[in-house]
Structure formats: structure tokens, C-alpha cells
């Protein structure tokens, strides 16, 4: 009987501690969910940098995971306490129903939080994909710009080579014309000199 009394007192204390923990966690959950929503707004705000958006989404994900751990711990404790109560008392249908309700609540908490985690994880993945896409676009734009600059440099080089070739041809023509003129002048002088 002393052992049963000791177990009953421990069970009552565990129930009181759980009730207090649930009360505090309900307030914390409401506050943290508000924080998560504020962080989600930042994560979706395209006027923010990708870094700010990604940090906000990751922080929201961390908060949700922390809440999940606490909520699951409380729900598991509620299941444990109910099982012990069912062992101490002779389990009746209402005790079994209470246990089933607590196990359903535990599963619901896991399911609800997994849904939120998927949503937040998808947001993180979308931001990271956008960052990668933006980086790829910037890289492609830079490659296009480099290609345009190279083409302009090649065109200028070709133009300068063509000008140099034209100048060389013109210079050679002038030299040839001068040589012909000099030869004619020399031939004329020679012819005049022979006539004298």
C-alpha cells in the first residue's frame, strides 16, 4: 500500500508538472508561431536580399523544430502518465479512450508540425533555387558581355589590320609610282644628255 501511495503521489506530481508545462508551452507556441509568421513574411519579401530571406526561413524552420520537440515531449509524457494511470487503476473503457485520445493528439502534433516543416523547407529550397538561378543568370550575362567585348575587340583588330594592309598597299603604290617617276626623269635626263 505504501508503494502504491508513493506511485500515486509521483503520478499526481507528474500530472501537475505536465499541466504546468502544457500551459507554458501553449503560450510559447502562440508567441513562437507569431514569430514564425513574421519570419515567413521576411522570407517571402523579394525586396530583401536572398541572404536575409534565407536566414529568416531557416530561423523559422529552427523555431518550428524546437516547438515540435517540446510539444512531442509533452504529448509523450501525457501518454506515459495515462498508461501508468491505467496500470494503477483497473483500466476501464474511459481510461482506454483517454489513452487513445492522448495517442491521437501525439500523432496530430507530429502531423501538424511535419506539414509546417515541409512548408518552411520548401520555402528554403525555393529561395536557394532562386539564388542559384539568379547566380546562373548573372554568370550568363557576364559571359555574354565578355563574348560581345571579344567580338568588338576582334572586329577592331580586323579593321586595324585592314587599314594597315591598305596603308601598306598605298605606301607601296606611292613608292612604285615614285620609282617609275624617278626612272622616267632619269631616262629623260639621260636622253637629254645624249642629245647634247
Helix content: over 70%
Query: Which segments are poorly predicted (pLDDT under 50) over 5 or more consecutive residues?
Result: none
Mean pLDDT: 91
The largest pleated sheet is described as: none
Encode the helix/strand succession as letters.
Answer: HHH
How much of the residues is beta strand, in percent? under 5%
Q: Helical stretch count?
A: 3
- State the total count of DSSP E strands: 0
Q: What is the CA-CA span between the terminal residues? A: 161 Å
Category from helices, strands and their pairing? mainly alpha
Radius of gyration: 44 Å
Shape: rod-shaped
Annotate the secondary structure layout.
Elements: H1 2-44, H2 50-88, H3 93-195
Helix pairs in contact: 1-2, 2-3
Overview of the molecule:
The chain has 196 residues and is mainly α. It contains 3 helices and no strands. Helix 1 (2-44) packs antiparallel against helix 2. It is rod-shaped, with a radius of gyration of 44 Å. The protein starts with a helix and ends with a helix. The mean pLDDT is 91.
Can you tag this structure with a few keywords?
196 residues, single chain
In short, what is this structure?
With 196 residues, the protein is mostly helical.
